[in-house]
HTH cro/C1-type domain-containing protein (Helicovermis profundi), 89 residues
Amino acid sequence: MQWSNASKIIASNPEVKAELLKNELEYKLIEEVISARIEHNLTQKQLADLVGTKQSNISRFENGNANPSIEFLKKVALALNKKVEIHLV
């Protein structure tokens, strides 16, 4: 499916749009972690080793099947030479 078709479906379906907005933060965070991992030429296994966790935990996080703690996110950020910032707006 092309993005133009997907965006039409999203725009025409209030339930889909609401679900996407509800999960926007999670999607953005996952995208940022994956991009940083790839930028550092790290596999999920290599990142997991740096974080002190299992590859399967990184995979679950990247697939959106985990609810990570702030502590986990801080460890991931540190391993990727990043930092976690949380803002209420």
About this structure: The chain has one domain: 25-89. Residues 47 and 79 are 7 Å apart (CA to CA).
